Give the backbone structure.
Amino acid sequence: MAEFERIVILTGAGISAESGIDTFRSAGGLWEQHRVEDVATPEGFARDPDLVLNFYDMRREALSKVGPNPAHEALARLETEFAGELLLVTQNVDDLHERGGSRHVLHMHGELKSALCTSCEMRSPWDAPLSDRPPCPVCRAPSLRPDVVWFGEMPYQMNRIYASLSEADLFVSIGTSGAVYPAAGFVQEARVHGAHTVELNLEPSEGNHFFAESRHGPAGTLVPQWVDEVLQH
């Protein structure tokens, strides 16, 4: 593998699936037995806030029952040992990258362990239930919601992501379906600017044909092997 100086990595549900976290959506359009429209849209939250708050409380609590896997740990090692610039962008709202040792993670879809106040728009680290309507630590209003990007909302830090893609000489997509935009378009953005593109996924994604190189299999096996190759150059 050639030597690279600027790497952008995108991770999705597939990297956390091996830790026991369900991938986002089943073939039936359900997410952990709920309609996605009911628990992952602003309209669903407006319609039934109790359902949504309880749903995310359960997901937050479930994080304590899982841990990072070798793929998370390998990316943390890459962050530590890689001599160039590295941006790790994740679509995941879990904290497994951080628990695996990564120190700089951009959560483009937000984080389960963060709360967003709909009154003052401040974000706060959060590890407790939201369903009992606790006050915002900043303004004291009982207006907290999960700091998670729902369908119809703009993902976080897109300007920073696109700026990094325009400068990257390597873009790697790990465990993503290649179906949800804007993340599904990152590979094309990177290619336009001359980056080599690699997909590491359990099976070919919907956008697989955009990648110059594809490797398929479990992330816990593929990612450590790929990191070893990068660090040997």
Notes: The mean pLDDT is 92. DSSP finds nine helices and eleven strands in the chain. The radius of gyration is 18 Å. The domain at 6-21+67-109+152-231 is CATH 3.40.50.1220 (Rossmann fold).
